[in-house]
Amino acid sequence: MSLKAVIFDLDGVIVSTDECHYLAWKKIADDEGIYFDRAINERLRGVSRMESLEIVLERAEKEYSEEEKTKLAETKNGFYKEYIKSLTPNDILEGVMVNLEELKKNGIKVAIGSSSKNTPIILKQIGLDGYFDAVSDGNNISKSKPDPEVFLKAADMLGVAYADCMIVEDADAGIEAGKRAGMKTLAVNKAQGGDYAVPNLGKAKILDVVGK
Ligand code: BG6
Ligand code: MG
User: Fold this and answer.
1) Inter-residue contact 136 to 157 (CB < 8 Å)
2) Is the peptide bond prior to 146 cis by the omega test (within 30 degrees of 0)?
3) Residue 107 to residue 101: CA distance in whole angstroms
4) Which of 3, 121, 159, 212 is deepest in the core (most CB within 10 A)?
5) Diameter of the chain by CA atoms?
6) 11 an active-site residue?
7) Whole-prediction pTM value?
8) What does the DSSP 8-state code read for residue 187?
9) CB atoms < 10 A from the CB of 180, how many?
10) What is the number of the ligand closest to the CA of 118?
């Protein structure tokens, strides 16, 4: 296969912020008296903040106005930002740096493709701001995964053809987005349906997995 760029999801692939998202949503749900558990939380992977809120509110007993929804999303983000303040470079997941360095050494571009509007803050916290050849995130898209927009924009920023890109994802919504973008897909953790799959990047070298 021709591989010129690898586009990484951020939350759950580069860094384990997924627990911070869970705790912040759990606090919102508890405060509102809405049932929320880890199984429901799995459905929020890769999905934008407002769409995540809609999923959390599926179990609510009352209807929320648009104004109330905006307020809840803001409050959740406030909790989340408190949690991610403690992130450091030590929170970069196992195998990530080895893989990134190897890709770069082989002339393969690396980018971020994340639904999160907090991407710039997180990259800074973990010491990777300025590291990637392109960063496409929740701040420059209008449709979140499974729409392919975030990955298409990353490839456009890199100037690489979509067919020469591979995405790395921990969310089913992200794998679907990668497929719709016409890119190769590598699933990590529990994500389903990828062209390739590994339990985590500590267990595999991306270039070996794709046979390069
Ligand atoms: C994704 C997470 O990366 O970003 C989702 O997997 C999250 O769970 C989404 O909802 C949006 O994040 P943020 O930081 O903009 O609220
Ligand atoms: Mg993710």
Assistant:
1) yes
2) yes
3) 10
4) 3
5) 55
6) yes
7) 0.96
8) E
9) 15
10) 1
8 A C-beta contact, residue 174 and residue 9: yes
Nearest CA to ligand 1 atom 12: 116
Residue showing tokens 């209008």:
142
Give the Cα separation of 50 and 70 in Å (integer): 8
Interval between CA 14 and ligand 2 midpoint (Å): 9
Predicted confidence band of residue 203 (pLDDT cuts 50, 70, 90): confident
pLDDT at 173 over 90: yes
Under DSSP, is residue 74 helix (H, G, I), strand (E, B) or coil?
A: helix
Structure tokens at 154: 């990353």
| Residue 1 near residue 211, CB atoms below 8 Å | yes
Q: Name the strand (E) or helix (H) holding 203.
A: none
pLDDT of 204 strictly over 90: no
Residue list, ligand 1 pocket, CB within 6 Å = 10-11, 21, 44-49, 52, 77, 114-118, 138, 171
Pocket mutation for ligand 1, best pick of 48, 57, 176 (most atoms within 8 Å of C-beta): 48
52 vs 185: CA distance, rounded Å: 23
Q: What is the pLDDT of residues 47-79, one digit of tens each?
A: 999 999 999 999 999 999 999 999 999 999 999
Q: Which ligand is nearest to the CA of 119?
A: 1
9 is catalytic: yes
